[in-house]
Design a protein that fits this description.
By secondary structure, the chain is of the alpha+beta class. About 25% of the residues lie in helices and about 30% in strands. α1 crosses α2. It is globular.
Length: about 300
């Protein structure tokens, strides 16, 4: 039994932008469908109406949820997070009070751990109750650390996200005690340290000792995913020579590997869907390509 999760920074995604709307939405929907995603976490979504329009291109089975972060101390654009998912395969887990997603949790955390410049967005998904579905849930923490912040602030936020927020969410158990797998994902604006990347770097492995056990949280997906800014050459032509950073990642407890397989990868979206035309992809889609996490349960 397998499920595929995506993360996609869509760079100022707004139907009122200067992008060619039909081309952009057609292409984004085609990438999502062609890659076979069950859930996609989106960053840099500037309006809920934009999501509603995207779902018209994706089809009736797709649903969404959208939230503007509570804390945006240095980012006043109103950038929001979103999840979209194929409801024929998976759906949101409904909380007892009727809410589906959980933005209010960050008010609680900010008192204990300090304000995040842009807090993440947490949601729970499960195939339980759907045809062929199993009794488990996937907990996702969608994040986009602010690029314009001081580098050490980004590293501090990553520390809070992993040691405090991720740890707390992954330990939670609800009334039905459903097995759960928690994944932090998104645009960290921090690189994994590889010979082809530059600082700032994040800690690839983080250990959390809660007094009973020590968790080992690993961050994966080290392929380059951000596209260099197009520039004009000496002849006045707009050019772009490829990728720059591996800012897009997944983080999870490596103990999960005892019961499920997790395989991460970058989607070669420019090459597969835009014939390696980086300038056109950058103009119509984003300055990021999506990443994927495939989960296979041992059932």
């Amino acid at each position: 039994m397998g499920y595929k999760i995506g993360s996609f920074n869509l760079c100022n995604f707004n139907y009122q932008s200067n992008k060619d709307i039909k081309k952009s939405f057609d292409s984004i929907a085609n990438i999502i469908r062609s890659e076979g995603y069950d859930i996609v976490a989106l960053q840099e979504v500037l309006s809920e109406n934009t999501l509603k329009l995207l779902l018209k291109y994706l089809g009736f089975a797709w649903k969404y949820t959208f939230e503007i972060p509570i804390t945006q101390m240095k980012d006043r654009r109103g950038e929001g997070y979103a999840y979209i998912w194929n409801s024929r395969r998976i759906d949101l887990v409904k909380k007892e009070d009727g809410n589906f997603t959980y933005p209010s949790i960050w008010k609680q955390y900010s008192k204990t751990y300090g304000e995040l410049i842009r807090n993440p967005y947490y949601a729970r998904f499960s195939p339980n109750g759907l045809p062929g579905g199993s009794f488990f849930e996937i907990r996702l923490i969608n994040t986009h650390m602010l690029y314009g912040s001081v580098v050490n602030d980004r590293k501090k936020e990553f520390d809070i996200l992993i040691k405090s927020i991720y740890n707390n969410i992954s330990d939670r158990r609800y009334g039905n005690n459903m097995p759960a797998y928690t994944i932090l994902l998104g645009d960290y604006n921090l690189n994994l340290n590889r010979e082809y990347t530059t600082s700032p770097y994040l800690a690839e492995t983080v250990y959390i000792d809660n007094g009973r056990i020590t968790k080992t949280i690993i961050t994966v997906q080290d392929e380059l995913t951000t596209i260099k800014r197009p520039v004009s050459d000496e002849n006045g032509n707009t050019v772009c020579d490829g990728y720059s950073n591996n800012f897009d990642h997944f983080s999870y407890d490596c103990a999960y590997e005892n019961v499920i397989t997790l395989k991460s990868s970058k989607v070669e979206a420019v090459e597969k869907y835009y014939k390696s035309d980086f300038v056109k992809y950058h103009r119509e889609i984003s300055d990021h390509v999506p990443i994927s996490m495939e989960l296979d349960l041992f059932v």
